[in-house]
Amino acid sequence: MLLTLAWKNIWRNKKRSLIILTAIALGLWAGLFSVAISIGVWEATINSTIDRNLSHIQIHTKEFKDEKLISNYIPDGNTIADDIRKDKRIKEVSGRVLIEGMASSPTSSSGVNIIGINPENEKEVTSISSYIEEGKFFETEKRNPALIGKKLADKLGLKLGSKIVLTFQNIDTTLNYAAFRITGIFKTESTNFDQSHLFVKNTDLYKTMESEPIISEIAIRLNSSDDLNFVYSKLQLDYSSLKVETWKQLAPELEFTYEMLILELEIFLGIILAALLFGITNTMLMSVMDRIREFGVLMAVGMKRVRVFFLILIETFVLSIFGGIVGMLLGGITIWYLSDKGIDLSIFAEGLNAYGMPTQMYPVLPLYFYFVLILMIIITAIIAAIYPSIKTIKLMPAKAIRTY
Amino acid sequence: MKTYLLLAWRNLWRNKRRTLIAAASVFFAVLLALLMRSMQEGSYDYMIEASVSMYTGYIQIHRDEYWEKRSIDKSMEVGDKIVKEIEAIENVTLVTPRLESFSLISFGNTTKVASIIGIEPGQENRMTKLKNKLIKGKYLTPDSKGILLSEGLAELLKVDIGDSIVLYGQGYHGVTAADRIPIEGIVKFTLPELNKSMAYLSMNYSQWLYSAPERITTLSVMINHIDNLQEVYEKVDDLFDDKYEVMTWSEMMPELVQGIEIDNAGGIIMLGILYVIIGFGIFGTVMMMTAERTKEFGILISIGLKKGKLAFISFLESIFLAFIGVAAGVLVSIPVLYYFHQNPIELTGQMADMALSYGLDPILPFRFAPNIFVDQFLTVFVIGLVSVSYPLFFIRKLKPVEAMRK
Amino acid sequence: MNYINNKVISEKMKKILSLVTIITGLTSSLIAQDAKEIIAKSDELIKSKSSYAEFSMEIIKTDWTRSFGMKSWSLEPDYAIIYVTEPARDKGTVTLKRKKEVWNWIPAAQRVIKIPPSMMLQSWMGSDFTNDDLVKESSVVNDYSHSVVNEETFDGYECYVIESIPKEEAGVVWGKLLTWISKEYYFQMKVEFYDEDEFLVKTYVGTDIKEMDGRSFPTHWEMLPEDRPGEKTTFTYLKIQFNYRVNESFFSEQNMKRIR
């Protein structure tokens, strides 16, 4: 019965109620939306890093983590890679040869990470092939093809088709010099990455080094990121002599900034709700003050104070929740719609690229936030209701009736 | 005019409750906006401070083209006189010289390329807290003939305190720099790239080693607060002619600038959203109040008060209201922000660990500076005034006879 | 009458022309075949299987100049030791090349340091030569395909101008080299280094032809970088002994310390 009364009361002053409802709805919508964008951007950044190079899990020898020498390769690496591939959860496995060396042109030289890959496997594990701006991803007849980053090409003064000489240490520490041809140029969101990494066919490296097919790194892509922890634990057990790491361990700074981001966003939502809280309290106060006479009458006629208290509480509650639901619906729908289409931010391309961030943004809102928000709204509603409710029940009915 | 003002003021206080409620919405708006902005700006200042203290300093002075070419041949001679002149500039807290170079460091069969920095140990420590990073051995003294290695580098070379490494490189004007140097201490950096490549020598010794007597490659300047940067920069720039380059941290670390800009853009958007919500709150409150006074307005107009004059009085009321709210908000915020500025909120748990591993204090910093207050004061005040438009609009449309019947 | 004469003459002309063409063709293909030989011969001129030399090196930069006195022993193509005799500060510094690797002996530190791959492209002793240049020299003959493209007089000597294009597998950065070699004496007078876009990157010029140990060749060499006019590195041979008696074991880390 109180509920019906509360509801009716709310709509008695349409204008006022609508104003506060709109405020709540819009406030929440805006809040949710900005949170979704921020998280969306973040997820995109992380995903592109995982796709581009990290992949879900990587395996190296423990010695390799200390010193990235070619001599610290994974013993029986290819056999291990094949074994891992058999697991259904795993989409593909790519074995890579990693060598730190120098790349030089007639005019300049630069330190690089040389990554020897099997193009077929690599395509399924990372997305580097999709970043190619010029040339191809190793579909070529040319001898010793190389795929380098745009930044590196610029630095060395080279272009598609140019010769690039790679200098690196062999397993027995002798120096190798080999000429490669630039058959592809890629550009990722990270100019740092572009300058310091280049790809060649692992078979070409074996030929130059006159060595057996060895691999320094096993990169694993899962079918679903939900399996991450499970596969990780399993691999750790199976290969305890090697170092198995997830992308979170490989790039801890990503995790850190994510946590900070979530914290910032929660505070932001809190502040929005605090702002709304005052609005709600204000509104309810006015609503209550308007009806002092009425409450006076009610209480004089016998309505218990407690019930009046609850009446106000419910009114506030309903108002807030109603506005909250509308806000969340609005937010949810916008986010759902835009998560498909995305928002274009290419005006900020340069700044975003330096941070490895993409220019196309897709809002993402983890379910967790909706729950947090509902909780926050409920708490806000309750707090907002307290002052007006208390004010009401403190009324002296007789005096109240006599008020304007 | 005086009548109007008095009238407006009295009107406000006729209905204390209503006025206080309206002012309160403005008050809280200001408080929240201030808190949020203070936190945002605080974190930028903090990031900048942390980054510049790590290595570059706020301002650096070099020989022209040094930043691009990084060759010891582009070193400079800077006398004590000029250093004292820089130190004398207001807001400068520290001036630190360095002689930087890349050379080979070798031990046994291992040779690595390292960044060799000649430092004035005391000043360097005051700027970058290098001494705190010492994990083994002793810190350098101005007369040290030993070397400080970063932990990662020591591990790669498999050396320890007491071992001597060989340094080999190119000194000033092509003279070979080579010597056998005992390791005096090991320092640890949280960033792995730094941890694997840094080595420090005392300035005197490195100048001798690189055949660069009285020469340095950079002079780093620290100031007390980033707000004073532009002023100090100009004064420093005046002291040097165009044979030298004077750079600020933003020129030396453009990625940090971009990172902050992106963050700032996001922050302003969030603040904007906050304003919209606040605006709604204030607008709504004013709307309700105006509606309450329908009868009152109706009567006033029908007894002869011109609508224009009534509108003007309303306008004055709103200004007072906004002013009261904002002023109260600012006054209350001052001690609150100051408190948080001096006692920042501590981060806990995983967040704290991560911050520490980056060499940052695990705190949420707040910025306490006039610009924040002025900015928010003005903005919220303006928002408050915008909501004036409703009463004016309302009064215009008012039909007195109907109004009196409400 | 005239008509018949003209026809006969033009017939004859044609025959002569074709004969000349054939002869010229033969000659030029002979010359083309020899381009590699010419280069090889030229290469051998100042390198015998083994040699000993004394020379000075001067580094000229916009701000400063430095001079070194040096001695070198070499066993082509893989081994060489260079010992610095002057100035006093650098005296005793030794550079050892074994195949593709370089070591330095530093007297001030009493240590041998192997130059890591990342430093191979850094300058050697501050000059315009890199450590890499020291080890790459001797591969020119086999790593490139050579052909004679011109004949020119340079510095008073008639020279073949030979164009050398690196073979596909060669680990060299150049797009092409142009070498001026004296027809009569086979010494190299000038080498121009081009990138693959035919931009000149550096020039190596030899002058001051003198006779040493029975051979004549340019004794003063200058390396001129194209992008830094006014700067150069110069070499002046003071003495050379060809077929100097030395074997592989001489070129060792231990010997670096003992050399005088």
Salient structural properties:
heterotrimer; A: 404 residues; alpha+beta; 2 domains; 6-stranded mixed barrel; two-stranded antiparallel ribbon; 58% helix; 19% strand; C: 260 residues; outer membrane lipoprotein receptor (LolB), chain A
Helix and strand arrangement:
The complex is a heterotrimer of chains A (404), B (406) and C (260).
Chain A: H1 2-12, H2 14-54, E1 57-61, H3 62-66, H4 77-85, E2 90-104, E3 109-117, H5 119-125, E4 132-135, E5 145-149, H6 150-156, E6 163-169, E7 175-186, H7 191-196, E8 197-201, H8 202-209, E9 217-222, H9 228-238, E10 242-246, H10 247-250, H11 252-290, H12 292-301, H13 305-341, E11 343-344, H14 349-354, E12 360-361, H15 367-393, H16 397-402
Parallel strand pairs in A: 3-8, 5-7
Antiparallel strand pairs in A: 1-9, 1-10, 2-3, 2-6, 2-9, 4-7, 5-8, 6-7, 11-12
Chain B: H1 2-14, H2 16-56, E1 59-63, H3 66-69, E2 76-77, H4 80-88, E3 92-107, E4 110-119, H5 121-128, E5 134-137, E6 147-150, H6 151-157, E7 164-170, E8 176-187, H7 192-195, E9 198-202, H8 203-209, E10 215-216, E11 218-223, H9 229-239, E12 244-248, H10 249-252, H11 254-292, H12 294-302, H13 307-342, E13 345-346, H14 349-357, E14 363-364, H15 370-386, H16 389-397, H17 400-404
Parallel strand pairs in B: 4-9, 6-8
Antiparallel strand pairs in B: 1-11, 1-12, 2-10, 3-4, 3-7, 3-11, 5-8, 6-9, 7-8, 13-14
Helix pairs in contact in B: 1-13, 2-11, 2-13, 2-15, 11-15, 13-15, 13-16
Chain C: H1 2-46, E1 50-60, E2 65-75, E3 79-86, E4 94-98, E5 101-106, E6 111-114, H2 131-136, H3 140-143, E7 144-154, E8 157-166, E9 176-182, E10 188-194, E11 200-212, E12 215-225, E13 232-242, H4 253-258
Antiparallel strand pairs in C: 1-2, 1-13, 2-3, 3-4, 4-5, 5-6, 7-8, 8-9, 9-10, 10-11, 11-12, 12-13
Describe the structure.
The complex is a heterotrimer of chains A (404), B (406) and C (260). With 404 residues, chain A is of the alpha+beta class. Chain A is 58% helix and 19% strand. Chain A folds into two domains: 2-50 and 254-402, no CATH class; 69-215, no CATH class. Chain B has two domains: 2-51 and 257-404, no CATH class; 65-241, no CATH class. In chain B, the strands form three sheets. A six-stranded mixed barrel of chain B has the order 3-4-9-6-8-7, surrounded by four helices. Chain B has a two-stranded antiparallel ribbon with strand order 2-10. The two termini of chain B are 31 Å apart. Chain C has one domain (44-258): Clam (outer membrane lipoprotein receptor (LolB), chain A). In chain C, 23% of the residues lie in helices and 44% in strands. In chain C, strand 5 and strand 6 form a beta hairpin. The longest helix of chain C has 45 residues, at 2-46. The model of chain C has no long low-confidence stretch (mean pLDDT 82). Classes of the chains: A alpha+beta (404), B alpha+beta (406), C alpha+beta (260). At the A-B interface, helix 2, helix 11 and helix 14 of A face helix 2, helix 11 and helix 14 of B.
